[in-house]
Each structure stands twice: as C-alpha cells, then as structure tokens.
C-alpha cells in the first residue's frame, strides 16, 4: 500500500515559529505571565484553556475565554508578521516530488483555520494537499493522537502506512500514540530532544535531505 505523508505546518513546512513566539511574548507579558525565553517556548503546544493555563500560571480561563485569547493572538500574529512567513528550505521541492509520485499528503496542525488559510494561500501550498486537520477540527490537541488519526482517516490510509513529518517532540509523541512512524525535523529543537521516541525513522535538518523512494519502503 502506498504511504501517506502527514505534515505538521508551522516549523515543518513553513517558517513561522519565530513570529508566533514573538507574538506570544507580547501577549503573555501583557497578561502578567513570568514565562519568557526557553521556558515559554517549551510550553507552546496545544490549544485552548489547557495551553493558556500553562503559559499564564495561576490563571483559570474557561475554554471560551481561552479560545478568544488565542484567536486574538493569531490575528495579531498575522497583522504583525504575516508578510514575513516563507516556505522552509527544501520543503517545496520535497512536496513537488511527492506530488509527482501521487503520494497522498495532508496537514495536521494546532493552528486555527484562519492561520491555515492565510499560510496556504499566501505560499501556494494548498494544491499539494488532499486533507487538512486543524485546531477547529479536533477536541484534543497534540500530544493526543486525535489530529493524526483524523488526518489518516481523511486520507483513507491506515495509521501503520502513514509517515508523520514534525518539528516538535509533542507532535512526534502524538504520532507514536497514533501508531505512526515519524521523521523529526530539527529547528527549534535539537536531535537530543527527540531521543525518547521509538517511532522516529530519521532526524534531519530539512526535508530536502530525505530520499522519498527510501521512505516508501521503510
């Protein structure tokens, strides 16, 4: 059976993490959070109330309040830094080759639909994708496996035939829980940060060092 390629978006296909981080720094400082630098970066996964309670210690936001804060942050991110986002080195070439080989591809991300649409249309990435699962489509964010399992279902591919491409350990953990193999992309995390996950096939600095033909037979 043909493999399906399941991609995270931010930090895996597109270079947005510095912009997201700068925006979160502004937001949490305004909310009185003591987190900054690496302490803040390590907490930037997931979504909704669970995320906000971690990055603003002592807070007790309702899910509705948290989603409003996150949505406002994302709007601010697009306004401040939207013109700076780019496709990561090697990503488009990898997508072109996979598309030519008719490999089913989709995105599983914690971004909301507005951010997804903004990035895919601005960078002309939508044409590569057969399915998209974002924050608005799931109940539980990574490291819960729901995102990857739902994306595999939409791609009509069993989890054991899916390869996840991720730049964050929590996304790799979600792939492990979903029964999927994964490729770890180093960037904001080092190779050592991925050492605990037995589902990793390779740890690479960028997608363009991968051999797609080899991946199909792993």
UniProtKB/TrEMBL annotation:
Signal peptide: none
CDD domains the record matches: HAD_BPGM-like
InterPro entries with a match to the protein in the record: B-phosphoglucomutase_hydrolase (IPR010976), HAD-like_sf (IPR036412), HAD-like_SPP (IPR051806), HAD-SF_hydro_IA (IPR006439), HAD_2 (IPR041492), HAD_sf (IPR023214), PGP-like_dom2 (IPR023198)
A UniProt-annotated Pfam family: HAD_2
GO molecular function, one term: sugar-phosphatase activity
Classification via PANTHER family: FRUCTOSE-1-PHOSPHATE PHOSPHATASE, GLYCEROL-1-PHOSPHATE PHOSPHOHYDROLASE 1-RELATED
Recorded family membership: Belongs to the HAD-like hydrolase superfamily. CbbY/CbbZ/Gph/YieH family.
UniProt name for this protein: HAD family phosphatase
